[in-house]
From TrEMBL:
Its EC number is 3.5.-.-. This is RidA family protein. Pfam families: Ribonuc_L-PSP. GO terms for molecular function: hydrolase activity. It comes from the Bacteria. Keywords: Hydrolase. It is an enzyme of class 3 (hydrolase). It comes from Kitasatospora cinereorecta. The lineage of its organism: Bacteria, Bacillati, Actinomycetota, Actinomycetes, Kitasatosporales.
Length: 125
């Protein structure tokens, strides 16, 4: 099983981790922040807007890996505030209206630059 790193200019990047790693028929997407890849700035003030940007970034990385949102098996989300859970779900269901992936979440320990959410996924390649 060869490990292949995935990168795209259509999602934020970091020198500290790969946007995704593809191996064994799976794509492991690193946590995506609500950051516009063109500006490097956090997008949106509401949890819905920030969730949308996270999932836009996830979709871009999956596309670069030859996968897609409909192949997502598992998702992890980190929220800054528990009160944002309902609003996050409002946006989430728009992206995964049928057969949503398994999912788990936790509280985001830090909030750099107003970030309220981060989303990571595992998908079929």
């Amino acid at each position: 099983m060869a490990k292949q790193t995935v990168s795209t200019l259509d999602a934020p990047s970091s020198p500290f981790f790969s946007q995704a790693v593809r191996s064994g028929g799976l794509v492991f997407v690193s946590g995506q922040a609500p950051v516009d890849p063109a500006t490097g700035q956090v997008v949106g003030r509401t949890i819905q807007q920030q969730t949308r940007q996270c999932l836009t970034n996830v979709r871009a990385v999956l596309t670069a890996a030859g996968s897609s949102l409909d192949k997502v098996l598992d998702a992890t989300f980190l929220l800054a505030e528990e009160e944002d859970f309902a609003g996050m779900n409002e946006e989430w269901i728009r992206w995964f209206p049928v057969d949503p992936p398994a999912r788990h979440g936790a509280r985001l320990p830090i909030r750099p630059g107003g970030m309220r959410i981060s989303v990571a996924v595992t998908a079929e390649a």
